[in-house]
Amino acid sequence: MARALDRRHRSVEERADRGHLRGRPRLGARRRDPRRARLSECLDSRGRDGRVARGGPAGGKRPRRSNGAAHRRRAGRAGPELRRHAELSQVGRGAGTQVRAVAASSVRSRPTVATTRLYLEPEHGFEADARVVEVSERALAFDRTCFYPGGGGQPADDGTVRIGDDEPLAIVSTHADADEIVWHVTQSSPPADLLGRPAKLIVNKARRLALTRYHTVLHVLNTIALRDYGGWITGVQIGVDQSRIDFKLDALSAALCAELEGKVNAVVARDHAVTAYYVSEEEFRARDDLRRTLGAKPPVSNGRVRVVEIEGFDAQACGGTHVETTSQVGRFAIVRTENKGRINKRLYVRLDDTRPRAEGR
């Protein structure tokens, strides 16, 4: 009995040793030729592909998976082309044409002409007929637009667009790119085949007018702050219900806020006309009176800077929308202040709704 157990134990050890040696290269074994290895792999994969195409592996066995890393180790040094081929092959055979077709379909010709901005023109209104010139996922570009794309603290417009006889699409945001193309971002995905189709753009009028009133009154405020108190603008955010503006000021008291309120409302009540014109970039840089901030870049377009003038009171560089006369702004009040630093003071301002609204420009 003991002899039998001993023989059985030695047999198990011998089998374990043989398995261990099988995983190590034999001494004196000839190295495998990398070219022969590549050829063998290709022939083997062709054979497997042929069996799969005819309805499954022969003999009911599953085809062996090719290990890309092991293949590169056996074949020697693999260049970038081989690595790219290995990555693409995981997509599936026959998918190359489909991938190229998708890539080609995603390449579109960009509009070569900047969007005509109707909101900059007098009597522009809040609706416009346009034509679709570019589509990029949920963003649409038109040859002309009445939508303000945002800037100078004034948020971008929202509204709707109706393309042909389709249902209106909600436009939730707009922005301009470096080529001065204005993009209109829709809430839902637009239908296909929109290029060249006519469209009707409609701005959210109530929202735009509220932002326009605040933008104009902030021009009055920042001019008084700089002229009488040396306060340069350091930040601004225009809203529908209230707005905020930051000034570089050493001190801000309740008495000073009362002075500012009185002076702003006096200017607003005089019913100054508000107009816009353009000067060259060179002229703008020579005129410090057109600046209200030390850091922001001027609204330069085609070598020109737009200037908004409150006639008889102020002129400053601005690309935003404004009322036609100051009396259409309403009564101004400073409702809250914050100290945002040693010389940075924030004012929260509000307008009442008792005055008639302007169509704006």
Overview of the structural elements:
Helices cover 32% and strands 25% of the residues. Among the domains are: 116-203, Beta Barrel (Elongation Factor Tu (Ef-tu), domain 3), CATH 2.40.30; 208-351, Threonyl-trna Synthetase, Chain A, domain 2 (Threonyl-tRNA Synthetase, Chain A, domain 2), CATH 3.30.980.10. A hairpin with a 5-residue loop joins β9 (232-237) and β10. A 6-stranded antiparallel beta barrel has the order 2-3-7-6-5-8. Strands 9-10-16-15 form a 4-stranded antiparallel beta sheet, covered by helices on one side. Strands 11, 12, 13 and 14 form a 4-stranded antiparallel beta sheet that branches. The chain has helices at residues 2-22, 34-53, 68-75, 80-89, 96-106, 205-229, 254-269, 281-286; strands at residues 116-117, 127-136, 139-142, 144-145, 159-163, 169-176, 182-186, 198-203, 232-237, 243-248, 274-280, 300-301, 304-310, 314-317, 332-341, 344-351. The protein contains 8 helices and 16 strands.
CATH secondary-structure class of the domain at 208-351: Alpha Beta
Instruction: Return residue spans where pLDDT drops below 50 for at least 5 consecutive residues.
Output: 20-29, 45-63, 68-109
Under CATH, the topology of the domain at 208-351 is which? Threonyl-tRNA Synthetase, Chain A, domain 2
The chain-level mean pLDDT equals 78
Shape summary: elongated
What share of residues is helical?
25-40%
Q: Examine the secondary-structure arrangement and name the CATH architecture of the domain at 208-351.
A: 2-Layer Sandwich
Counting H and I runs of at least 4 residues, what is the number of helices? 8
Which strand order do you get reading across the main beta sheet?
A: 2-3-7-6-5-8
First-to-last CA distance? 109 Å
Report the portion of residues in β strands: 25-35%
* Number of E-type strands: 16
For CATH, the homologous superfamily of the domain at 208-351 is named as Threonyl-trna Synthetase, Chain A, domain 2
